[in-house]
Amino acid sequence: MAVYTTISRTDAQELFKSLGEIVKLEGIKEGVENTNYLVHLNDSKKYILTLFEKRTKETDLPYFNNLMGLFSKNGVNCPLSISIKNENIFKVKEKHCCIYTFVKGRPTFRSNREQLNSLGKSIAHLHLSGSSSNLYRKNMMLLPSWKHITESFSKSDPKINIEEYKYIFEKINDLQDKFPLNLRQINIHADLFKDNIFFLDNQVSGFIDFFFSCTDTVIYDLATFVNAWFFEKNKFDEYNYINFLKSYQHNFELTIEEKDNFNFYLKVSAIRFFLTRLYDLHFNYEGNVKHKNPIEFFEIFKFHEENNIQDFF
Length: 313
What we know:
Layout: H1 9-16, E1 22-27, E2 35-41, E3 46-51, H2 61-73, E4 90-92, E5 95-101, H3 113-130, H4 143-155, H5 163-175, E6 185-188, E7 197-200, E8 203-207, E9 214-217, H6 218-229, E10 231-232, E11 235-236, H7 238-251, H8 256-260, H9 262-283, H10 295-306
Antiparallel strand pairs: 1-2, 2-3, 3-5, 4-5, 6-9, 7-8, 10-11
Helix pairs in contact: 3-7, 4-9, 5-9, 6-9, 9-10
């Protein structure tokens, strides 16, 4: 359960007093980064109250809120920040927080053909929308994060010394100077895991959790999505991947350079989630958090070393 900061209904009601009376406050179990509560008001309206923990910087919140507003204006269903007295960033228990609209739907963990077709269209629409703005935030979860985590591991006592980490550390040295400079940059979600995409009646009903969003190449966003959706128990789901890709490419055209660098970014994204999961496993003990297995992404990285699924483009 990703609740780092416990708040009472009384704590929340002070913030919500202009919106209505809170009748129920539920901690949300999904997620690992921030504290989220589902807030039920007496008029049956629902909101999400998000308290931002240490990995999310206050200075990034206007970007996240403005980006969700941009996506929404372009027809992408996502949470929108609620303003009270012309402010949409607040404080509860000394934590910065925002109130967001409620997105209907639930994640799916067994995709069917209709859902894959909807996913292709919806993520293509997300990427088209992300191409239409001058909003900018640097992606801090690649090279800056790699540097921070590897330095933390080198100083830790006892040192992180598992074979998988030593292998990835060597690969970082090989890859860090090879990031392509000729790819278009757009505003991306950057965390398109299954629990961040909702469905109703086999159609994508919305996207949530934009708090890793940034300006980077579309192919990195696509790589993160593919790694998160089409691998299970170290096996690649080629059938579902191809069905998704047909729908996506019908609605969003990738450049030759983006296609040629897809394998590179599949490996880069696998490193990103291997490292952050390993870091959280060893250093993140706050709150009631169920840690995710970093080795899953080590195995995905190894798969991409031995296979090149960009050949399906």
